[in-house]
Amino acid sequence: MSRLTRLRTALGFPPIHDQGRWQPVTSGTGSTGTLPYLVSGSGEPLLYLPGLTTTHRLPTGTDRVFQLSQVAPYTREREVWWVNRRTGIGDGVTLSGLARDYAEFVAHRLDPPVDVLGLSTGGSVALWLAAEHPDLVRRLVIVSAAHRLSPLGRAAQRVTAESTRCGKTRISSCAMFVPLGATPRSRTLLGALGFVLGSVPSGRGDDDMVATLEAEDAADVEGRLGDITAPTLLVAGDHDGYFDRSQYEHTAATIPDCELVLLPGKGHLPTHTPAVSAPVLEFLADRHRR
Q1: CA 23 → CA 36, 40, 84, 171, 281, distances in Å?
Q2: Which of 34, 156, 232, 276 lies 20 to 30 Å from 262, alpha-carbon distance?
Q3: In sequence order, which residues have a C-beta less than 8 Å from that of residue 186 and are 6 or more positions away?
Q4: Residues paired with residue 21 on neighbouring β-strands, in sequence order
């Protein structure tokens, strides 16, 4: 047993019983890459769209441990399909296009409609998926994402993308970390931490990450929120830098059937903390919701 396997076992993560790369079947522009996926847990399928990743390849090493930690609370009751964006997406990709890739994945690999949980950038894509392919989504959970990025979020992601293209990984990671905080002090400290970590958070210039950043920067799904028919739960911190409180409230108010859980004093939230996982699991367990 490898050290990594022992670490995953010690942390209580269930084994990965399937992993691979799935290629979209349509011939749409740029649909030549593959969607990497991991499957863990047992029970009813839950499609999990992760936040921004430094690469769209299958996660390895500590990155795999981190991604598994995000889905761990849900694998006790659900078979979680962790599915990343397509590799080789190229410049000019849109969140709508990424959602179409996921729609094909659901239609060909799962038994739709399915429950969907999207985190941060994955949540932004999940909103497009539910709006443009409503027949595929039964219940929708969005964590730390709204109809579009805040001004701070857009500025941070533009600096991250431009710095990554130029190979300035310390500046890239600094910009990426700043909006994670809930206060000016915490944002300053997190920015400094990102600078010290260098390429660890932002990678070394992967084109897929940069293209995803630029796609999210340009996207605004506000006009399609009314098309979401799935019961929806939106969980967020009310001091998030990537999306502000007013955006969360507007997104929740515009989706026809949406419950908003705002956590006071919190910034950009992950999915594995009890404050997030508890309401999510309760929402997904409610059989009266479709």
Answers
A1: 9, 20, 12, 34, 30
A2: 156
A3: 267
A4: 36
Q: What is the CA radius of gyration of the chain?
A: 18
CB 173 within 8 A of CB 197: yes
Q: How far is CA 116 from the centre of its chain?
A: 11
Q: Helices (DSSP H) in the chain: which residue ranges?
A: 3-10, 61-75, 95-109, 121-132, 151-165, 169-177, 184-197, 199-202, 207-218, 245-254, 274-285
Task: Compute the C-alpha angle 131/134/137, nearest 5°.
Answer: 110
DSSP code, position 75: H
Report the first-to-last Cα separation within the chain, whole angstroms: 42
pLDDT computed for residue 205 by the predictor: 73
**Interatomic CA distance for residues 117 and 207, integer angstroms:** 25
Rounded Cα–Cα distance for residues 272 and 223 (Å)? 30
Q: Give the pLDDT of residue 29.
A: 46
Query: If you write DSSP's letter for every residue of 108-128 in order, what string do you get?
Result: HHS-SSEEEEEETHHHHHHHH
Residue whose structure tokens are 């990671």: 173
Q: Is the pLDDT of residue 123 over 90?
A: yes
How buried is residue 162: exposed, middle or buried, by Cβ count under 10 Å (0-12/13-18/19+)? Answer: middle
**CB atoms closer than 10 angstroms to residue 41:** 22
